Amino acid sequence: MGRYPFAYDHAQPFMQQVSDWIADIFYDILPEAGFEVRDEQIYMAFQLERAYAEKQTIFAEAGVGTGKTLVYLLYAICYSRFMNKPAIIACADESLIEQLVKPGGDIDKIARHLNLQIDARLAKSPDQYACLVKLDEARFGHEDTGLYREVYESLPDFVHTREALQTFYAYGDRKNYPHLNDEQWNRMNWDVFQDCFVCDRRHRCGQTLSRESYRKSTDLIICSHDFYMEHVWTYDGRKREGQLPLLPDHCTVVFDEGHLMESAAQKALTYKLKHMVFEELVIRLLKGEVRETLAVCIDRAIEQSERMFEVLERSCRPIAGSDRKQIVMSDLLKREIHTLCDILSEIEEELVFEGEMFTLNDYQLKIVEEHLEMMQKAFALFRNEDSFICWATESITGLTLVVMPRTVKEVLKEYVFSTKMPIVFSSATLSVEGKFDYVANSLGLEKYLSFSVDSPYDYVQRMEVVAPRFSEGGTFQEKMTSAIDLLHRTQGRALILFPTHQELQRFKVEMSSRSDCKDLTFFYEGDQEISHVIASFQEDEHSVLAAVSLWEGLDIPGPSLSNVIVWALPFPPQDPVFNAKREAAASPYEEVDIPYMLLRLRQGMGRLIRTREDSGIIAIFSEELYTNTSLREHIERVLPAGVVMKPE
């Protein structure tokens, strides 16, 4: 087979030929291999043809079972080969990525049934790789030192030696350490405070080596939303520093579970500042021969940074159910920030003179200048109270100040939507009660194509939705009793979706002492690497999976998942990010809380029925459904047609 999987006629429009080929696949080729003809899938294919032909953005909302992933993959592969650039498939998280690339996943199906050679490579986020510096700190630390020594000794030989003519390859992927829980992994993985630019091991780092691999992909590069937005946000800076962008030049982007794109964009545009990191960085400048005026500025900056963080710590208030701390802005805190800004500006001016005198190492100078520029951009947001959101987090190394722009619309418009390439937002939940306004407005999109097709499954016969009534308002113990009854009813085979990690941990502690569930195996998100946890749950039919982040992406067909328990309606948290959205809305409950909750609830319910043969129970724990008529009506409208919510 040549460049294209069909005979290309240069005299005819390329995308029309792609559409005809895809129609043949869905009408003839796949049915011969045992797949069913899905009208919804074919309809989606014709809709995507227009988006690719006209290089437009499209919201492609297609229900569970429509086969939407196969459609966008076929278009992305063909378009990539036509443009001679890779296509980017950006997924909401690592579990969604795994669904695409695992043996028997969608890419594997296309390759096998269409006899296609597909060059698909993973571009995982930096925090999915081990950091050699942090690993050293962990193995000489105070906790699990034996565990980290074993990890260190299992690294490839080239990590420990400096001999030439060795074969280097990517290593250190989170997936390679399934036995580590999230807390253990976080002690040895990359984080935002690692100074990779001056790390003497960067050329033997697994993260760096992985980039050399995926940049060579000719068809597909699969990454997370977070990583794609990190690429967008750092593109100019990396170019200035003489580095390659995180992702190579590409021709199209598909955002799978595209309704989560805004939060990924905000995360990528976030600034994180820590006194300890700043102090270590600027002190490097004092190791060379510098003028006294610069040395004095550096000392003043360190003292002012320390003072500012002391005031910041006194301004923090805990947020219930969150590891984030609310910052109560005051005139004193603003003055300390502005004073530090002024000193940083003085340092930047002094560095111009030092650079002309060639007394400082060019590379070290560039690193410090980039960090100072980042701090100035973060502090600049404080000049307008309506332009930023901020909070603080606490760790063993001190307080971290986190600052992000209030909206990301301008950045997305300039760096993503102005690129004149086809962009596909794909999900089963892009609209709220039939309208795409909520997602479009959050992204700043004014012009877009859209369509919506329902799932082909018979939900009336296959799905039972229950909302237990609680006599005491839905206490934790009442929910425990109902959950255990439901687990016995389906003999395990259940996914329990929690709104917060705190509630999951409380459930875990409570369940460890319950004798009435001793015959069931429980898997908890965070205890091991997520794809390993999912695989274990799928293999043990009578097990239970408790999770916080698996509202999207989890695909467990068959009887292993016959019961989805929604522990609480997934309203957005009362944290600084969503509080800012509420403050900007005329009707916060209707414009922010309800749309977010309904999208997430629809996603969670979508975990149950993955094939025509699947069936089971959706249980929604919310006493408010019986006291708030408007809320109940909202939820009833998003249930599959004909499905009725009943008391247990």
As laid out across the biggest beta sheet, the strand order is 3-4-2-5-11-1-12
- By DSSP (H or I, 4+ residues per run), the number of helices equals 25
Rounded to the nearest angstrom, the radius of gyration is: 26 Å
Structural class: alpha/beta
Main β-sheet: number of strands, strand sense, barrel status?
A: 7 strands, parallel
Poorly predicted ranges? none
- Share of β-strand residues: 5-15%
Quick tags:
single chain; 648 residues; alpha/beta; seven-stranded parallel beta sheet; 14% strand
Sum this structure up briefly.
This protein has 648 residues and is an alpha/beta fold.
Provide a descriptive summary of the structure in words.
By secondary structure, this protein is α/β, with parallel strands linked by helices. It is built from 25 helices and 19 strands. The strands form three sheets. A seven-stranded parallel sheet has the order 3-4-2-5-11-1-12. Strand 15, helix 22 and strand 16 form a beta-alpha-beta unit. Helix 6 crosses helix 7, helix 11 packs parallel to helix 12 and helix 23 crosses helix 24. It is globular. It starts with 13 loop residues before the first helix and ends with a strand.
